[in-house]
Amino acid sequence: MKHAIMGGILFLKTSNLKETTIFYLEVLGFELWLTQPEINIVKHGNMLIGFHHQTSESSKCGLITVFFETKEEVDRMYSKLHALGLVKTEPKENEKYRIYNFFATDIEGRDLEFQVFLHELPTI
To answer: For the chain, what is the radius of gyration of the CA atoms?
Structure first.
């Protein structure tokens, strides 16, 4: 079995592993990367997030930022999350950071940002 030499996973507590996983897979378009006892690790591009089931508490610190290649992809995500009542702002261009973005929350109240960079990026 081949293993990655370097990488990282952000682990967050969740009080509802099943529903949180379904949200990230079906609504946000992440892939299921790995399942372990009481943990599901989801993937979007080079980002890995592990959700670890806790009986009554969910991690809500920080901001999960997902970036796309086009404004249209950001707008599609906005439409999905708007229909679910989870958006906090409308998509707009941010000249300071040279991005097009909006903010929302997931089903447990974690802050999310969806954006596209409006400039060239270094290779990951």
So the answer is: 15
22 and 12 housed in the same domain: yes
Length of the chain in residues, anyone?
124
Q: How far apart are CA 28 and CA 47, in angstroms?
A: 13
Q: Which residue has the tokens 């809500």?
A: 60
Calpha distance 41→34 (Å, rounded)? 5
Q: Which domain holds residue 13?
A: 8-58
Q: Which residue in the block uniquely carries the two structure tokens 């979007």?
A: 44
Tell me: the pLDDT tens digits for 18-50?
999 999 999 999 999 999 999 999 999 999 999
Instruction: Look up the CATH number of the domain holding residue 23.
Output: 3.10.180.10
Total structural domains within the chain? 2
